[in-house]
Amino acid sequence: MRRLSPQRLLKISLILIFILLVLPLYLGRGMNDSLDHAHGTGTVGGIDFKAYYIAADMLRAGKDFYDVELQTQEVLARGLPLNESFYIYPPLLAICFLPLTALPMQTAAQLWFFINLSLYGLSLILIARSLELSRLTKMLPLFWILAFLFPPALFTLYKGQVNIVILLLLAMTYWLYRKGSQPVAGLALGLAVMIKVIPACLLVYFLWKRRYVLSLAAISTIVIISILGLMIVGLTPHKTYLIEVLPSLAQPRPNPANQSLGGFFSLLFIEHLYTEYFTHRPVLWKALTWTLSVALIVATAAICSRQRRGAQRVELEMSLVIATLPLIANIAWVDMFVLLVFPYAVLLKYFLMARGHRLSIAPRLSKALLGCACGSVFLVSSSRFLDLLASFAGWQSWLMRNPLFLSLPIYGLAILWLILATLLIHLRDAPVPNHSLLEPR
Fold it and tell me: Tag placement on the chain: N or C end, fewer CB within 10 Å?
């Protein structure tokens, strides 16, 4: 009988851990907690799904699903807890949710949970294949376990958010780009923009990099979907979206779960009940948010624009843009950080390449960046640890009401941005090995 090598035995063990321990965690939550928000117990399971479902049902009934008062009436009529979770996305998501309104909300929430779970697995497969991680390591099952235990992934699935769909579309954009299918990659990117506006920054990036075929395909997709949406939804909801919803997204949203620059400064300079804010200065909030957001955009553009075409590492540049999205979005709940799976996977690729001497990075720099990356993951994941700490009354009285302490995830995101920027600057003038792992096809 052939003996198993220690490495193969470890790989099999990791697969069994994933199947027997990690997946049951999701299966239990999907079956039992996918809409526990409806029970009025203070939980948030399905809280965002509820908004999507109600918006689609209102669309089916011919109502203005952006009208906050009408949405409130629908929530109360269904006996659901009233909160600030309303539909704020472009019409495409509500249109896509129309088939789910044929099911009771509880059943539809369960179905949406498992659809999202499947899409998350597909996203990880696309990311791993497009980055060719299997050529660099035999420990991909460990990557899967860590990815499924990533707290933002747990949060976005639990809340029924749409972020995993965006992650999948961005992963498809890069995968198709590497394969040379720029028109289809543009289609995927255009769909992402029409579901959640913030991925438009990636469209600007591809225009900046003169990827005109991809950009034109994305713009065409946006235009076509906008016309179809106008025909399906009607003019009134579009007016409400442009006149009321979009301007409201630029307002302060002080909440410990809002880990954007706008959210961070709103905890400090906007009056609220969540933490001990410093002072109520809306003008200071606006000035700091806009100044740092513009500075980040300019810095990202400068770092990406100075890359030589032959040495271009698109996955690093895309990762830098993706890491910038939650920072400048003004409203970026912790669950939006699931998009960071792509940048973290790219960093994993480059650290593995540096370890295998396939990339010219000084050992000390590589170790320092690896340590920073581990710290970034810990801080980004800290919201789950904070929830556990919040269960102890002793923490509630002082540390858990400190806005600087509750902003640990944004510190992790800032560290991730700096790591990516450092790598891009460091590799800008480095000689490019003739290796398929470095260049898109």
Answer: N
C-alpha dist (Å) from residue 216 to 177, 183, 190, 213, 426: 14, 8, 10, 5, 32
Q: Comparing C-alpha atoms, which of 216, 240, 247, 222 is closest to residue 92?
A: 222
- Tell me 22's DSSP state: I
Q: How do the domains of the chain map onto residue ranges? A: 1-249, 250-441
Residue closest to 100 by CA, chosen among 38, 64, 156, 54: 54
Report how far apart, in Å, the C-alpha atoms of 122 and of each of 5, 272, 296 are.
Answer: 29, 40, 31
- Per DSSP, which regions of 246-401 are E strands? none
Predicted confidence (pLDDT) per residue in 190-202, tens digit: 999 999 999 999 9
What stretch of H or E contains 70? helix 68-77
Q: Measured at the alpha carbon of residue 51, what is the angle toward residues 50 and 57, in degrees to the nearest 5?
A: 90
The phi, psi pair for 258, rounded to 5°, reads -90, 100
Pick the range with the lowest mean pLDDT from 181-195, 222-236, 237-251, 358-372.
Answer: 358-372
For the chain, how many residues are written? 441
Residue 281 burial (CB count, 10 A) = 16
3-state secondary structure of 333: strand
Cα–Cα dist 151/379, whole Å: 11
CA dihedral sign, ordered 296, 186, 97, 123: negative
In the chain, % of residues over pLDDT 90: 65
Contacts of residue 342, defined as CB under 8 A and 6 or more positions apart, other chains included, come to 127, 167, 170, 171, 174, 318, 319, 322
Of residues 64 and 138, more confidently modeled: 64
Ordered alpha helix ranges (H), 89-181: 91-96, 105-130, 140-148, 151-159, 163-178
CA–CA distance, 418 with 420 (Å, rounded to integer): 5
